[in-house]
Design brief:
Layout (H helix, E strand, L loop, with lengths): L9 H15 L2 H17 L16 E3 L5 E3 H5 L4 E5 L6 H19 L3 E6 L3 H11 L5 E3 L4 H5 L3 E3 L2 H9 L4 H5 L5 E3 L2 E5 L5 E6 L9 H12 L1
Parallel strand pairs: 3-4, 4-5
Antiparallel strand pairs: 1-2, 3-8, 6-7, 8-9
Helix pairs in contact: 1-4, 4-9
Length: 223
């Protein structure tokens, strides 16, 4: 196992977090979240997302310091792991980004790069980089333009907007627009030719891809 890659799974970290939430959050809030996640799953929106074998759309987005980062430039050096997350306010994204930082050495040992993309403004992206000590590019996708090309975007229902506000996660503040749109969490492994080798999209934002699955996909690309 590469140095820095934790033996604890991302799922176990999320489960531990949710056990704490269950002790303190009002039951009706948790029930409401469960109902909304079920509705998203039943909508079939996740099945429309970019699939294995598809050609990934190229993009250029600013990193947390305003420097443009393009997928084509990254692909010129090797495979790329592209992960879309919701924002710095999302505790599941926090656990995911920290886990991926822990696996970054192993990802780069396989000749690949990792980028994380969210619709939040650069100030919040920079906050993510600094607080989590991230050393991979964290990009701002204003208006979810790139997430839309990966077919990940959905508009929050009135119930979800109320719940987000209840938790202090008012999206217009973080994203700089009034759309109340988010990407579903999605992670893609893209080869040097722009072909998607691995794709995981889940309408349940509490489910995230394990670093081990990403490393397995990168080994498959390499072989």
């Amino acid at each position: 196992m590469s140095q820095g890659l934790s033996t604890a799974t991302l799922k176990s970290s999320i489960d531990t977090f949710m056990q704490g939430v269950a002790k303190h959050a009002p039951p009706e809030v948790l029930t409401g979240l469960g109902v909304e996640i079920k509705k998203l799953a039943e909508s079939g929106i996740a099945r429309q997302a970019l699939q294995v074998g598809a050609e990934a759309p190229d993009f250029t987005l600013p990193d947390a310091h305003g420097k443009p980062v393009s997928l084509s430039a990254l692909r010129a050096r090797g495979p790329v792991v592209v992960t879309f997350y919701r924002g710095s306010w999302c505790p599941f994204c926090d656990l995911q980004l920290r886990a991926y930082q822990g696996a970054l050495g192993a990802i780069r040992d396989l000749g690949a790069e990792l980028v994380a993309i969210s619709p939040q403004t650069p100030d919040y992206a920079l906050s993510d980089v600094e607080k989590k000590e991230l050393t991979f590019p964290v990009l701002t996708d204003e208006g979810n333009r790139v997430a839309r090309e990966f077919k990940l975007v959905f508009t929050l229902s009135d119930t979800l907007r109320t719940l987000q506000t209840h938790f202090g996660s008012v999206l217009p503040k973080f994203n700089g627009d009034d759309s109340w749109e988010l990407p579903m969490p999605g992670t893609f492994v893209i080869d040097r030719h722009g072909v998607v080798w691995f794709a995981s999209v889940d309408p349940n934002w509490m489910v995230r891809v394990e670093p081990a699955a990403i490393l397995a996909a990168l080994r498959a690309v390499r072989s």
